[in-house]
Amino acid sequence: MKIVLHTYGSLGDLHPYIAIALELKARGHQAVIATAGFYRNKIEAAGLEFHPVRPDFPTDVEQQRELVRLIMDKQNGTEYVFRQAILPYVQETYADLMSAVRDADLLVTHPLSFAGTPVVEKTGIRWVSSILSPMSFLSAYDPPVVANFPSWLNLRILGPGFNGALIRLAKNQFSSWDEPLRQLRTQLGLSPLADSMFEGMNSPDLVLALFSEALATPQPDWPKQTCITGFTFYDRNGDTGLSPELASFLDAGDPPIVFTLGSSAVWVADKFYLESAKAALKLGYRAVLLVGNNNPSLPKELQSKDIGVFDYAPYSELFHRAAAIVHQGGVGTTAQVLRSGRPMLVVPFSNDQPDNAARITRLGVGRTIDRDRYTASRAAKELDRLLREPGYQAKAAEVGTKVRAENGVKVACDAIETQLKKDKNPTFHRVPASPV
């Protein structure tokens, strides 16, 4: 059958769906990734079908950097994503996605697929929604850690009653952001939804939570139709594995500390890699710095045979060879570190990263430093604890065993195939918004 998977965002938002699409294709289905045209070459190189869906990303390097800077802003990054990067284009997204699902049997949506619900309502197509990180559930029982909240504010000790009221207040604020979506629904003759940006994004039949139970367990206020699959891993860049230079570096000495900022925060690294190199030298450890394609080289005083600077490496081939990993806390990177069984230091920027960092700390497999406080001395101090206290090593190894035993791709595809066996629902039932 034809299955369309719609996603938008960084590689952390794309890779889980490529993993699922490849398995669906191996099972004999026609899997189509519908996303920004920016990713066409990567998707087609993986042997998958591609359908462009607006909005696209800028092609100019400086415009890309500015976009990431706005998205990663601690105070306003999440608001920018909703109000500037996605929702103003929801009519174009809807038109492109309607084209993508023509003759399709099922649609899989990303948490930011705001056009997905209207497409389902207009077409009656079978629908599976998905969540990449636990924060998206906004649970009063497992409250999120938000980037612009004070670091001392611990909502977990306040209880679900207080947290539920706080989340409702937050949703009321968010409701002012979705005017483009309300306009689209009016133009399409669809009734307004009570909560179009949150519950409205959840399929009434199946919500795939594409993460491990090591990161979060089901809560009473999660959608009852949620299936936790485990992580769905993919990290290829064409056919490229470890570069010969990186492989040689790893073979030449003790396991290094790996420093990475994923595929987005790397664009706004500032002094992260400079301070990281200093921290590694201070500790007497070798280091691998994954700096992307647009970062300057280290100053001469920090250039050393023990500091390897590389643009990219597949995490699945690198992390298990590290002593520890320092990263930005994106859920895709976090998943790969958990699978590796190595302890981690998280330096969260924005969006779901602070929440992922808090979960890692509570799990006992890592520690956290605020992005604005990341210096060589602080990083060295935190890394010294991770590397010397056996509890972190033991817990990371234990969780790594659990994550490696999961098969998120299989569980997700089995659940999708179950939905494919169901009849289409020509009438899509949603609770309408109150007229008051």
TrEMBL record:
<dbReference type="InterPro" id="IPR002213">
    <property type="entry name" value="UDP_glucos_trans"/>
</dbReference>
<dbReference type="InterPro" id="IPR010610">
    <property type="entry name" value="EryCIII-like_C"/>
</dbReference>
<dbReference type="InterPro" id="IPR004276">
    <property type="entry name" value="GlycoTrans_28_N"/>
</dbReference>
<feature type="domain" description="Glycosyltransferase family 28 N-terminal">
    <location>
        <begin position="3"/>
        <end position="60"/>
    </location>
</feature>
<protein>
    <submittedName>
        <fullName>Glycosyltransferase</fullName>
    </submittedName>
</protein>
<dbReference type="Pfam" id="PF06722">
    <property type="entry name" value="EryCIII-like_C"/>
</dbReference>
<dbReference type="InterPro" id="IPR050426">
    <property type="entry name" value="Glycosyltransferase_28"/>
</dbReference>
<feature type="domain" description="Erythromycin biosynthesis protein CIII-like C-terminal">
    <location>
        <begin position="306"/>
        <end position="404"/>
    </location>
</feature>
<dbReference type="Pfam" id="PF03033">
    <property type="entry name" value="Glyco_transf_28"/>
</dbReference>
